[in-house]
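ARCHIVE CARD
Drawer: 12
Card no.: 0347
Subject: one protein chain, sequence and derived structure
Cross-reference: see card 0346
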Amino acid sequence: MEKQKNKMSVLQLTIITAINMMGSGIIMLPAKLAQVGTMSILSWLVTAVGSMALAYAFAQCGMFSRNAGGMGGYAEYSYGKAGSFMCNYTYGVSLVIANAAIAISAVGYAAVLLGITLSPLQVALCTIFTLWLATVLNFGGASITGKLGSITVWGVIAPVLVMCTAGWFWFSGKQYAGSWNPNHFSFFNGIGKSIAITLWAFLGLESASANMDSVDNPKKNVPIACLGGTIGAALIYIISTNVIAGIVPNAQLVKSDAPFGLAFASMFGPVAGKVVIGLMVMSCFGSLLGWQFTIAHVFRSSADEGYFPKIFSKVTKTGTPIVAMVIITCIQSLLALMTISPSLSKQFDTLVNLAVVTNIIPYLLSMSSLKVIQKSEGVPDSKARVTDLIALVASLYSLYALYGCGLEAMTYGGIVTFAGWTLYGFVSHRFDLKKNEV
């Protein structure tokens, strides 16, 4: 077969992988990690190792799986249509929840930018407005959404890169050390409390192998790009959040709804802080715009498979699933009202933990299916054993992250998951009945 032209280099794919993970997930991290203290750097190290294991294992799944449908296709090897359904269902639910959290991030930064204080109800109502605005703007189709997203993502990346480099000139080692464990958590409790928020920053790594058809020699270059992108994102996350912890006092950081803006104001003055906050609001909304469109297509593809109601398959002449978008945004609006909390930060925590719990379920199903995927494709045992070990590490990390999300998130996540099994019972006749009749 002739080598195709215009394919990405492994470096380009690595950069794209890192940028896809960063998005808007980082903008609230410094404030969240400040609740634990600078000992949260230990959580970063644990999450970096776990995320690299996940990224590598997903790269192997993508290379050897013959099933379409991403994680649902991977899970089908070991768990049949039931596992495929659960992957699609829980992944779809996690994206719905995660986008509500992104909208709350945008609201938090916008409130600081405008110098206003919002009540819990006002936060929820502004979040709902932001979600609907992003949905309505998506009615025009994918072209505008894609162009905006490729520009607005730099509203996050540029300030973060400045923080990673220039921020060191304002860094105080004494302040950093004094913020190590302000709440006197035990060693394992402290790490566990920040595991969920650090994993939140890496959600989306499962899409790292989606571009495997766009790079030469994918069997070699895709794992390199997945690992390289994850390592790159990890370094940027770890450096930027820890530099901020040495610039802004912990007590101020914990209370901030715009931690990067607060850090830049400390470094360069109030005007710079406002500019950075404005850039991050822009980036956050651009990310929200793209993800609202993506979620609708995730639900649409699941409906095409027969997993979700056919109403999610309806599209306009431009191929835009407007009905799916409206239904999803209605669910997100209800979610914003149901999770009203004493503070914006607390509501963000609740949504992030629930998004992480539901997202880990397809991770676990995919990791545990990798052995069957490799055997079905005749991968030599010597190579398969190494990959199986990495998948086991990824699975153990995922289970630990579930524990770190806390009982409340686990309870709600458990209810959501059991609801999924119930829903599968109502559609399983489309798959299992045919199989039994053969």
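Annotation on reverse: The two ends are 38 Å apart (CA to CA). The longest helix spans residues 71-114.
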